[in-house]
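Sharing a chain and its predicted structure for anyone who wants a worked example. Both blocks are below, sequence first, tokens second.
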Amino acid sequence: MGLQKVKTLSKEGATVIAPARDIKKAKRNLASISHVELDEMDLAKMLVKNY
């Protein structure tokens, strides 16, 4: 999800749950936006099983 989308949804009153690879960097970038919750999500760390 892009930064502009988070800003737009927040301005409309939505609580945005934003996935982030780097929580510290995300906190810096989203500090001025209200209604944002961060959740760590690093796809490189996820295990994908082959079927």
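Comments welcome. The radius of gyration is 13 Å.
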